[in-house]
Amino acid sequence: MSVPPSSLVRSALEGSGMLASSEYPRLYSYFAIYSTAATAYCVGGSLAYFIFMEGATTEKLQCIQITLTMLSGLMKLCNAIFQQNKLNTLLLGFDGLWDQLYEETQNREIMEKSEKSCRLLYKIYKFFVIFTPTANILMALLFHLIFGVDQLTLQIYMPFDNKKYYVPVQIAQITLAVSPLLANTSSFLLYLIASEQLATYMRVIRRKLREEKISKQTIREHQEIIKLLNNTNDLFSWLLYFETTVISVECSCSAYTLYKPEEGSRYQLSVKVDESRSASERGSRSEETL
């Protein structure tokens, strides 16, 4: 009885360190726990400050925006972990599929189902790529209509005066507006490369299965697709590290706005403030104090 080609390929790839490491899921769990704890701390601080502070409309809106920013960061991180786990599952499932197909060369349904799964995942990720930036824009419009801000609220906080540094603020707002699109598109394209190559390779394998003995060319193609999936896996890992760092900095900056109330240090928001109303409120508060 001949040795299944996958066993030969697996031993060669393990020797070269190309197979997905079993430490990946544990590493992502650590990242998830760390990021969830950091985000929960920041969100908890925001809500506590929102509940116990004296009620100024602008400050309440600021707390709401900060909380939404942190929750958005947590959602982005969870999405990255979800994508990474899906890719790991795809990689391990592909290697197991090879063994099964070698033993059951007459089973064509497995190949067809795998191709359909790739196409379905393609459609799901395409939906997320379109939905995420659209939802961000709609949320900005909603804030504009409800709270009456003077421009689209893109959840940007700057440690300086918006009017004095108008150009950098606008650049930052534009960057923040398109960043969800760029982030989701980049990860989507990485996954698309792997899934499309895998679907193409499955069609090649289906033709090769008609042979009595799987050729060396097929084994070489199997090695190439495993290498491609592992390289894509590594790219996802670096994206996850980078995204975790960015989200941590974003949460820290948002929390800074809550605990730095001195004038001039607080991050500026593009919110219309009714000066006459604010003055009357301050006057009424001083009278109550007296």
Description:
It is found in: Cell membrane. InterPro entries: 7tm6_olfct_rcpt. The N terminus is likely disordered. The chain contains seven helices and no strands. With 290 residues, it is an all-alpha fold.
**Regions with pLDDT < 50 over 5+ consecutive residues?**
1-26, 149-175, 260-278
Give the radius of gyration: 26 Å
What is the strand tally?
0
Structural class: mainly alpha
Annotation keywords:
mainly alpha; 290 residues; disordered N terminus
SSE order and pairing:
Elements (H helix, E strand, L loop, with lengths): L4 H12 L6 H30 L4 H47 L5 H39 L18 H43 L7 H44 L15 H15 L1
Membrane topology: Multi-pass membrane protein
Pfam families: 7tm_6
GO molecular function: odorant binding; olfactory receptor activity
Summarize the structure.
By secondary structure, this protein is mainly alpha-helical.
